[in-house]
Amino acid sequence: GQSLEQPSEVTAVEGAIVQINCTYQTSGFYGLSWYQQHDGGAPTFLSYNALDGLEETGRFSSFLSRSDSYGYLLLQELQMKDSASYFCAVRGFDSGGYQKVTFGTGTKLQVIP
Amino acid sequence: DVKVTQSSRYLVKRTGEKVFLECVQDMDHENMFWYRQDPGLGLRLIYFSYDVKMKEKGDIPEGYSVSREKKERFSLILESASTNQTSMYLCASREGTGNSPLHFGNGTRLTVT
């Protein structure tokens, strides 16, 4: 099976940097994704890591270490609009050999002035 | 832009009713998914489909079934709704190849009374 752990809540100050960690267990691994979801909205894709290392997209970066089954999302120059829930998601195999995407329980980020 | 449309934003049903949740995507995506989202539990996969008339159980399929008669449409069926199926239901689609992300609909908030 697949399971992911991430902190439930994080608070950070506007303009600061925040890191949201994710550890996972999976049978078969294709990659780790991050999604953002504002209250009342749909989750939207942020980033994907299939290989070890850092991927940067503007103010957001995502890191993966496959040997540690660990990844993180780094948000820089925080803005009030970054207040949202952030989900890590692992793409792996199910028992039938089909790819499926399993989500963590989400980290609610509150950005304060 | 990919558009994933869920037929209802809010739905109220009575215990024991048969409930249909409809999802349509307009990008000819092969893969479609149904998740439910509950506070503190994140997004949990109910069923998914990789092709027309194909379906695969996710992590919590009990009490649900699905139908995919056409590529663009993926229906979630609650055979006999129960109060513990009160939740936010999210449909998603993705291309069948590569590392393409999930594209989500805006969700259906189902209340079973």
Explain what you see:
The complex is a heterodimer of chains A (113) and B (113). In chain A, a hairpin with a 5-residue loop joins strand 9 (84-93) and strand 10. The mean pLDDT of chain A is 93. With 113 residues, chain A is mainly β. Chain A has no helices and 11 strands. In chain A, 0% of the residues lie in helices and 59% in strands. In chain A, the strands form 2 sheets. In chain A, strands 2, 4, 5, 9, 10 and 11 form a 6-stranded mixed beta sheet that branches. In chain A, strands 1-3-8-7-6 form a 5-stranded antiparallel beta sheet, with no helix packed on it. Chain B is 0% helix and 52% strand. Classes of the chains: A mainly beta (113), B mainly beta (113). The interface between A and B is medium-sized, with 26 and 22 residues.
Layout of secondary structure:
The complex is a heterodimer of chains A (113) and B (113).
Chain A: E1 3-5, E2 9-13, E3 18-25, E4 31-37, E5 44-49, E6 53-57, E7 60-65, E8 70-75, E9 84-93, E10 99-103, E11 107-112
Parallel strand pairs in A: 2-11
Antiparallel strand pairs in A: 1-3, 3-8, 4-5, 4-9, 6-7, 7-8, 9-10, 9-11
Chain B: E1 4-6, E2 10-13, E3 19-21, E4 23-25, E5 31-38, E6 42-49, E7 56-57, E8 64-70, E9 73-78, E10 87-94, E11 103-104, E12 108-112
Parallel strand pairs in B: 2-12
Antiparallel strand pairs in B: 1-4, 3-9, 5-6, 5-10, 6-7, 8-9, 10-11, 10-12
Notable characteristics:
heterodimer; A: 113 residues; mainly beta; 5-stranded antiparallel β-sheet; 0% helix; B: 113 residues; 7-stranded mixed β-sheet; 3-stranded antiparallel β-sheet; 52% strand; globular
How big is the Rg of chain B?
13 Å
Q: Roughly how many Å apart are the termini of chain A?
A: 41 Å
Q: Kindly report the greatest chain-chain contact and the residue count on each side.
A: A-B, 26 and 22 residues
Low-confidence stretches of chain B: none
What structural class is derived from the secondary structure elements of chain A?
mainly beta
SSE series of chain B: EEEEEEEEEEEE
Q: Residue-averaged pLDDT of chain B, rounded?
A: 94
Mean pLDDT of chain A: 93
How many strand units of chain A? 11
Q: Strand-residue fraction of chain A?
A: over 45%
Number of helices of chain B: 0
Number of strands of chain B: 12
How many H/I helical runs of chain A? 0
User: How would you sum up the global shape of chain A?
Assistant: globular
Radius of gyration of chain A: 14 Å
Give the helix level of chain B as a range of percent: under 10%
